[in-house]
Amino acid sequence: MKCMDLGFNDDFIVIDNDAETVKEKMFQHIMDKHKKEYDLLSDFHQDEIKSKMDFLIRRGCGCGVLKL
What we know:
Elements: H1 19-33, H2 35-40, H3 43-59
Helix pairs in contact: 1-3
């Protein structure tokens, strides 16, 4: 999962086989590096970012294989 895919302007990427770990690591990165920006968002847009994480995990890399 790329941080840029969630609307933040950096090149941070999380790679892991466990979906929950990916979400946790990405959210921790957002809180560490983008907290001010995230806190300025409405509750709706914060929830939208979390939903987008779930969507990106479900779609996989686009190659058709969701898990290794």
